Amino acid sequence: MSATLPVTVDDYRELARGRLPRFLFDYLDGGAGTEQTLAVNTMDWARLRLRQRALIDVGGIDTSTQLFGASLALPVAFAPIGLAGMMARRG
Predict the structure, then answer these.
(1) Which residues face 70 on adjacent strands?
(2) Bridge pairing between strands 65-67 and 70-72
(3) pTM surpassing 0.85?
(4) From CA 22, how far away is CA 18, in angstroms rounded?
(5) Per-10-residue mean pLDDT for the chain, 91 residues long?
(6) The dihedral of CA 26, 27, 33, 37: what is its sign?
């Protein structure tokens, strides 16, 4: 890991391991039961490949969408999660 700033997902994971109480890190890092869903999700993410495209015109890209009847300029949403209040104030 970089001495000053985290760079990779694993860097952030190790920072979290060092900062969070163990029970909370284990909750966030692990999966429930036999962790089958966690394993499948991890494999799915590993199959994704991002294609870097530099110097393309993004002036005309429209990221807006409709979600639950509301117009959103940038469609980012978070689902409710357990113990959110332990990870951020007013979680």
Answers:
(1) 67
(2) antiparallel
(3) no
(4) 9
(5) 77 92 86 87 91 83 90 82 70 58
(6) negative
